[in-house]
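User: Reviewer 2 asked us to show a designed sequence for the structure in our supplementary figure. I'm pasting the structure tokens here. Could you produce the per-position amino acids so we can include them in the response letter?
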């Protein structure tokens, strides 16, 4: 891991994590393609997706997804001040995370059937029993996710980004392998195995990818664990982590809302919403997640050095670059959602009817993509300032407000309303966080962001309109072709038309795009030449 030293630049870190995010999303789409081919938008798939609600909430309650955010600032200062005490604190966190995750998992296992009725109120008793069975298989994965998150945080502190980048690849790969191979071991009974193999793959993937690999690499780089039950820094950790544990924001619960309220809309709704969200989150993960994860250690260091100007500059560059990329990408995907869904999911038990039903859901969930990007970067700014309270409180209030909208508007209306309320609630929440930041920290981090978004929209909207018209014009021309071939032709044509229109407009309205692309290409070719 010598090439990932403390001198690692944020750009290289973002490149590694972006490559991981791309491969992880690709594998995730392959996984969902296999699931959609085998099970389509069926009750079995609905129950599989709904089985993640309780495990995911346990992860949120123990701030597993935010472990690096809560522990990195404390460990960074600790290792600078007293290495032995830092290791004792790290050991204390590891011990309590294992105990807490095991306790919550045990409670989930015992009350799985009752919890199934809460998270999927639209399912009948037989479906709840099946859901509880799936849930009991998946729940132990949280022990490995949550315990492993401490080792991942340590690796991120050391700026060893390769292993955190591999984790989702191993996880998704083992889900696919177990889902396809385990039913074969049951012979004739394998036909009744359903999605059990995929559930087993979730736990096996979490064990190998999220726990064992980070722990072994952390141990190889020097790991000093001790049986420490209490530590004076534990109170500071809880002060930072508790808002993340108790504050259930619309961002964290968005996917769970789709599953809970989707279960009340009839068979297949949970699956269709899930498939649509998978597509919509691809550009968000590729452009936002990697950038946010890579920038956080640097933001913490800039604050530790009291370099506020560079701190704001880093936030500004990350948000501007993210919006500059996500807006054209999300609008292109919105215009060509039909061909994308046909290529990725259509086939087997996922037919043209399911594709048509999924198109508007995907389009609605693509619209708030720029707000997802801003959130991923901006919330790291809050956390770097050790302010976990503001995002938690505002997000919890937004959650409380949006729940009645789901019940009173979305459930009586249909799946498209669930997708629309999801996007609206996320957008309004992020705007609220931006306004709070402006009032407290000033506008340095947002300087020029509005102009970037306006220019991007000015180039992207006409290009997306032309792309959509192209897709509709080709609808009858290739109607006799196999659906997959026709969808590929449509997608290529839409992409070419979008690219030409976008670049022509960008050359006039936003030459920054052309400059940015040419510089990136020049750097790539220069590195290859060297």
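Assistant: Here is a per-position design you can include in the supplement:
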């Amino acid at each position: 891991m010598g090439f990932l030293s403390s001198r690692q630049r944020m750009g290289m870190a973002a490149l590694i994590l972006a490559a991981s995010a791309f491969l992880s999303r690709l594998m995730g789409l392959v996984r969902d393609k296999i699931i959609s081919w085998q099970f389509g938008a069926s009750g079995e798939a609905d129950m599989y997706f709904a089985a993640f609600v309780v495990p995911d909430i346990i992860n949120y309650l123990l701030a597993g997804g935010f472990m690096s955010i809560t522990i990195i600032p404390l460990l960074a200062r600790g290792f600078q001040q007293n290495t032995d005490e830092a290791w004792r604190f790290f050991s204390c966190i590891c011990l309590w995370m294992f105990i807490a995750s095991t306790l919550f998992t045990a409670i989930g296992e015992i009350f799985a059937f009752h919890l199934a009725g809460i998270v999927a109120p639209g399912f009948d008793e037989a479906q709840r029993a099946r859901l509880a069975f799936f849930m009991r298989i998946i729940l132990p994965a949280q022990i490995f996710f949550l315990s492993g998150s401490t080792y991942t945080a340590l690796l991120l502190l050391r700026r060893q980004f390769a292993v955190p980048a591999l984790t989702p690849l191993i996880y998704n790969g083992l889900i696919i392998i177990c889902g396809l191979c385990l039913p074969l071991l049951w012979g004739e009974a394998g036909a009744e195995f359903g999605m059990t193999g995929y559930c087993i793959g979730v736990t096996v993937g979490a064990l190998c990818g999220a726990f064992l690999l980070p722990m072994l690499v952390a141990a190889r780089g020097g790991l000093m664990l001790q049986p420490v039950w209490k530590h004076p820094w534990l109170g500071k950790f809880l002060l930072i982590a508790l808002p993340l544990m108790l504050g259930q924001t619309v961002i964290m619960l968005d996917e769970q809302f789709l599953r809970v309220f989707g279960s009340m809309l009839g068979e297949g709704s949970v699956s269709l919403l899930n498939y649509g969200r998978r597509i919509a989150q691809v550009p968000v993960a590729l452009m936002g997640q990697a950038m946010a994860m890579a920038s956080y250690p640097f933001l913490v260091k800039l604050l530790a050095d009291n370099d506020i100007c560079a701190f704001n500059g880093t936030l500004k560059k990350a948000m501007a670059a993210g919006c500059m990329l996500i807006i054209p990408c999300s609008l292109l995907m919105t215009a060509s959602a039909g061909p994308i869904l046909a290529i990725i999911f259509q086939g087997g038990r996922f037919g043209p009817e399911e594709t048509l039903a999924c198109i508007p859901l995907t389009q609605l969930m693509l619209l708030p993509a720029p707000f997802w990007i801003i959130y991923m970067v901006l919330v790291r700014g809050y956390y770097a300032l050790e302010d976990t309270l503001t995002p938690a409180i505002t997000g919890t209030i937004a959650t409380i407000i949006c729940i009645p909208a789901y019940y009173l508007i979305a459930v009586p209306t249909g799946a498209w309303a669930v997708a629309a309320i999801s996007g609206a609630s996320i957008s309004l929440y992020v705007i609220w966080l931006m306004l709070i930041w402006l009032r407290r920290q000033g506008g340095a981090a947002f300087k020029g962001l509005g102009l970037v978004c306006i220019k991007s929209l000015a180039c992207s909207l006409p290009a997306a309109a032309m792309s959509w018209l192209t897709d509709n014009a080709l609808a009858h021309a290739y109607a006799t072709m196999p659906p997959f071939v026709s969808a590929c032709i449509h997608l290529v044509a839409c992409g070419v038309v979008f690219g030409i229109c976008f670049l022509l407009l960008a050359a006039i309205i936003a030459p920054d795009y052309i400059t940015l692309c040419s510089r990136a290409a020049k750097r790539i070719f220069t590195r290859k030449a060297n």
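For the response letter, you might also mention the following. Confidence is low (pLDDT under 50) at residues 1-8, 523-530. The CA atoms of residues 201 and 270 lie 21 Å apart.
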